[in-house]
């Protein structure tokens, strides 16, 4: 596959009128997610970036990423057509795209599929880890479900291991000597999630994003990294968390205002 430029930059010369050699692309942040747009997005904090059409290599406004797919949306704003990678009210799909990004990022889609809650899988270990760390039992299960589908022997292509899919360096830092031990993996994962929740002041979305893509990526993007893998993972964990809470007899959480 040929390396591709970030989609917004590759398409700007086609989408924006005029013959100027430099164009403006807006990097917008809203609800802890990043998008690129041809005009400032309502409700987002946007920063203008100049892109030189004649540059030998176009800059990557997303930052360092892996390969992901997404959608470019078209909508009318102030009487003009504008384009954005965020699906705002009034938007319509303009095209689907794939962006090439460098290897080495830990972000992954997860090995478990969304399905029915599995309350019988390692139940004793999850309860013990939740009591020891104060991390919500339902959320621990949601992470494990998304990560490995509770398979203690799971090993990802990127080297993550066990029920909680701990990377070797993370497992070592957490004192997990056997990452394929369900008890050690769950306990270590719970302690890591506790630290992430403390870091992000209880924000589970950011904690899940950091668990998936790394603290550095969340810091770099000031929110959920714009990796398709991470965005899909965060959504998957959120859905699973709601299902586990319901299955465990908890009332649905009230969204924060």
Automatic annotation (TrEMBL):
Does the record carry rRNA processing as a key word? no
- Out of the domains of life, which is the source? Bacteria
Which keywords label this protein?
Answer: Signal
Q: Give the signal peptide, or none.
A: 1-22
User: According to its UniProt record, what is one Pfam family this protein matches?
Assistant: SLT
Q: Per the database record, which ranges form the Transglycosylase SLT domain? A: 126-223
* Family membership noted in the UniProt record: Belongs to the transglycosylase Slt family.
Q: What is this protein called?
A: Lytic transglycosylase domain-containing protein
What's the source species for this entry? Stenotrophomonas aracearum
């Amino acid at each position: 596959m040929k390396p591709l430029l970030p989609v917004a930059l590759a398409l700007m010369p086609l989408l924006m009128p005029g013959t100027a050699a430099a164009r403006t692309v807006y990097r917008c942040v809203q609800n802890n997610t990043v998008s690129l747009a041809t005009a400032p997005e309502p409700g987002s904090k946007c920063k203008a970036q100049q892109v030189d059409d004649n540059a030998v290599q176009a800059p990557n406004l997303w930052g360092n990423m892996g390969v992901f797919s997404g959608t470019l949306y078209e909508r009318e704003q102030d009487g003009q057509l504008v384009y954005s990678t965020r699906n705002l009210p009034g938007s319509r799909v303009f095209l689907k795209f794939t962006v090439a990004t460098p290897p080495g990022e830990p972000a992954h889609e997860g090995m478990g599929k969304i399905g029915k809650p599995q309350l019988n899988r390692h139940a004793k270990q999850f309860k013990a880890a939740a009591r020891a760390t104060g991390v919500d039992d339902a959320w621990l299960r949601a992470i494990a479900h998304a990560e490995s589908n509770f398979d203690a022997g799971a090993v990802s292509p990127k080297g993550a291991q066990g029920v909680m899919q701990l990377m070797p360096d993370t497992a070592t830092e957490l004192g997990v000597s056997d990452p394929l031990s369900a008890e050690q993996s769950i306990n270590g994962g719970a302690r890591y999630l506790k630290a992430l929740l403390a870091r992000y002041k209880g924000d589970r979305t950011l904690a899940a994003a950091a668990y998936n893509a790394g603290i550095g990526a969340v810091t770099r993007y000031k929110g959920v990294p714009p990796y398709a893998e991470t965005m899909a993972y965060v959504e998957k964990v959120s859905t699973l968390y709601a299902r586990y809470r319901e299955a465990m007899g908890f009332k649905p959480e009230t969204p924060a205002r």
